[in-house]
Amino acid sequence: MDQADQCERIPVAGWRERVDLPEWGLHGVRAKLDTGARTSAIDVATIEHLEDGRIRFEVVGRHKPTRRTKWVEAMPVRTSVVKPSHGKAQERIVCRTPIRVGDIEAEIEISLVCRKKMLCRMLLGRTALAGRMLVDSDAKYLLTERSRKKHRARFDPGFDRPRRPRERDGKNDTSDGSSGPGGTP
Fold first, then answer.
1. pLDDT of res. 153
2. Euclidean distance between CA atoms 104 and 101, whole angstroms
3. Which structural domain, as residue segments, surrounds residue 23?
4. Number of domain units in the chain
5. Which of 77, 135, 162, 185 is deepest in the core (most CB within 10 A)?
């Protein structure tokens, strides 16, 4: 197979996509796909070392308007020295976990770091992208939905949107035919 045939089979992603990390219970994380970065990273506020060698860390889903976080436990695979864009080398803990971007699933390594000042909570580097997807630097959300709710409804089979009761003639319509608590049909 020549290189042109291989490129036709590789999906094209936007420079920003929604990423699911199912083993960590995270869905629709906004990620920047960055071919200039080698390693992937996720925004973490706190890391605790547990007795069995595992770690517990607080993943930040968003900082504003209200801070949303989720605690995750995982086994670190290594530590890595990373030189971020500001130039000062940092030692980071790296974990492996499966991810999903649209229909693409892979197990990747992710470094844990504070990304508070960054627009996206996650960064997918070229080792996670290589051979799995190409990146269109002029487009966003080619493989996933822009909205977190729409993304979860489409890509997370366990996600159910809460539904409001239908209104009929100014009264709530319920499945038993009554008009709601204390009402009559």
1. 60
2. 5
3. 3-42+77-155
4. 1
5. 135
CA pair distance 127, 64, nearest whole angstrom? 30
* Burial environment of residue 128 by CB neighbours within 10 A (0 to 12, 13 to 18, 19 or more): buried
CB contact at 8 A, 111 and 127: no
Q: Are 18 and 29 in contact (CB under 8 A)?
A: yes
Residue 164 lies in a domain: no
Which backbone phi and psi does 80 adopt, to 5 degrees? -140, 145
pLDDT (tens digit, 9 = 90+) per residue, 133-163? Answer: 999 999 999 999 888 777 666 655 444 433 4
Please tell me the pTM assigned to this model.
Answer: 0.76
CB 42 within 8 A of CB 110: yes
| Amino acid letter for position 48 | E
CATH number of the domain to which 129 belongs: 2.40.70.10
Q: Is residue 106's pLDDT more than 80?
A: yes
Specify the 3-state DSSP secondary structure of 25.
coil
